[in-house]
Amino acid sequence: MRALIVDDSRATRGILRKFLRELGFDVYEAGDGKQALAILHEIRSAELALVDWEMPVMNGLEFVRAVRAERVFDPVRLMMVTTKAELEDVCQALNAGANEYVMKPFTKEVIEEKLALLGVTPS
Question: Residue ranges of the domains in the chain?
Fold first, then answer.
């Protein structure tokens, strides 16, 4: 299964990459939403995208909206992974099309629980 990590922090991408590879995902990475959208078009989709909110060029919320605007990406499960912790932020992300929401800092167990809720597990 393919997973895309979208975060401008190399450290966060590294942590998530390690978690996802241990779970058996093929991992792609992008430093902003615009780059991530280009990767999705190049690889023709992914089962999962873990998306930070606050990034340059195209932020995570804009990325979620852009992905949801293209029917071909409907199957992609979108999980926000962000420091934005207000209920209003969670609602805004879910209303834009995110499937799940994780607040930083996170643990591997939290990511695994959210993946299970989404029904996204590599074979």
Answer: 2-118
